[in-house]
User: Fold this.
Amino acid sequence: MSRVKTGVITIAKVLLTKTVDRLGHVGEVVTVADGYARNYLFPQGLGIEPTEHNVAKYAKERAAHEAEMLKREEKARLLRDKLADVTLTYERKAHDDDRLYGSVRADDIVAQIEELVGEHIEGSRVHLDHAIETLGAHAVTISLYKDIAVDVRIQVNEEGAKEE
Assistant:
């Protein structure tokens, strides 16, 4: 393990054998604190010394990981394009002041998107500050992948109301 002492902290270069959140992806050589490498990354099997042999060994896994990331990104772009012009419509019972008896939640939005386009999205990706509790038009942002997001229009109509 290559170590460099900078002030008080000794740093080390580590080859990641698995993707570590907020640190790097499989096959990357990262610089971390020596103690983090010795006490966490190495014992957990998340990193090894970046020797020439080890770097070559994980190059193929890194290429496969990068291909998977590109595939996910392309899938997110296609889904964004499908959802860009979609308006999701819900019918709910409402009070006289347009407040709903029941609300429209992230789960409802996810279910309707899955029904419309056949793609499952995690509810945590739907950005709602609070459930939609009034009739009318609303906008909801959905994060699909990294920096790819789409604004979806939501229309809530009163249940049983006659359209003119």
